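During the reporting period the student researcher (J.K.) took over the structure-prediction task from the postdoctoral fellow and processed the backlog of single-chain submissions. One of the processed entries is reproduced below for the supervisory committee.
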Amino acid sequence: SSGINAEYGWLAIPYVDRERKLKLSQKFGVTGIPCLVVLGPDLEVVNPNARNRVSNDMEALEYPWGAKPVINLDEDPSNINDYVSILFVKGEGMDEGACKAMMDKMSSSGEEYIKKAKSSKEDQEFMFFFSNSVNGKVTSSVIEAMEGSIPADKPLLVVLDIPEGGKYSIVEADTLTPDLVDKAIEDYSAGKLTMKQLN
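J.K. obtained the following structure tokens:
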């Protein structure tokens, strides 16, 4: 066969070529299907898991679907299981200016870790997620897996380490401020956080 998938019009590996499929899966860290890895013209990985990004962008407005500095967890949770993540949940009663400051910090931190990953050609060390509410469709499941009750009106900053056994640590503070994002990352990296088990 020519390698062109006649039904869809793109290049495809023949099903019987399992060895090549296995090599590609290993090279790009594919552990399940469906999976969409986006490569740039230089064959560098633009996004190792772009399936949800593409599905949520049918008009290709965000093409080529590269890494986003901060991701809405309820729209695209695809990387939460693969990376240590910082999750900011906006409290229903949070001041608009304070919320914008937190989102700006999450975004700039995300940009910083994207740049580090590109320059080192390594995986991104931390992913940054936000949610508008503890009642979001994915966020509510994450919150339910934590000990105790989480009030919906208070903002929340959480370090999630799902890849290493499903652990989390809530950043304890009377008021969430942007500097707490850096502190959470530093404390996690130094092993200073008390990590609890997700249920």
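The committee noted the following: The CA atoms of residues 29 and 48 lie 8 Å apart.
J.K. will present the remaining backlog at the next meeting.
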